[in-house]
Amino acid sequence: MAKNLVKYSVVDAFTDAPFKGNPAAVCFLEEERDDQWLQSVAAEFNISETCYLTRITGSDPHDSPNGNAIPKFRLRWFTPVAEVDLCGHATLAAAHTLFKSGKIDSNLIEFVTRSGILTAKKVPEIKTSDGEAKESCFIELNFPVDPLTGFNSVEAPLVSKALGGASMINIQKTTSSSQNLLVVFPSAKSVVDFKPEYGAIKECPVGSGIIITAVAPPDSGFDFYSRYFCPKMGIDEDPVCGSAHCALAPYWRKELGKVDFVANQVSPRGGVLNIHLDEQNQRVLLRGKAFTVMEGTLLV
Hints:
- With 300 residues, the chain is an alpha+beta fold.
- The protein is built from 6 helices and 18 strands.
- It has an 18-stranded mixed beta sheet that branches.
- Strand 4 (72-78) and strand 5 form a beta hairpin.
- The protein is globular.
């Protein structure tokens, strides 16, 4: 029997305009596909993440006696070369696609993932323009904190080499399966101006990827800047990485003494994240917008 065709969208996440933020392909599966097919499609899209949504039986409100069941979907994320445990921008893209699709009638979605249950909800935003209030919305993701641990100073020269000898004032390491390095630069300008050598970063024997960060300029409207490089996973520079901010938020909490941040990921495409750190529950709430730039059908 022929398989159902798969509808997809390409969505720019953590932006409200096209060709900015971080693109993700969102594929809605009506039947299971094997992992080789999923990985092959991700390689075909060849963008930082391709994600796959499958509705969980019984989560449709029409199946619920009182009609208010929270819609639930399995969600998996693939780079062009591997499946990953957590991805912020593709989760935002998936939620945006579902909210716009008419497939759900809810302001809250639950995703069942390799990192547990994640939620996405609409959060109203009221803007005033020309004296008129205009309502739009953010999508708020509820993600786990990615705790940091100290870094073995003996390995610092390896990181320095990977970053072309850039000046570093602190190095820490995430404790999640990502095993990313978080490297603090002396200034926001040094983060913006940094010119990566992807081959050197890929050959670095410590860490899966490298986050670089610095406090933002005083009058910028942001709290901190960052960039993220992960050529080992097929992503030279991730334009806007939600999951990296699950480590950045607790780091800057200690440095800046606050739990609410506006973060600027200063990749060439750029993106903005509004963040709240829930210290009691060890969760990071990431707010952002998204823009659909493409829709189509997979023919295989």
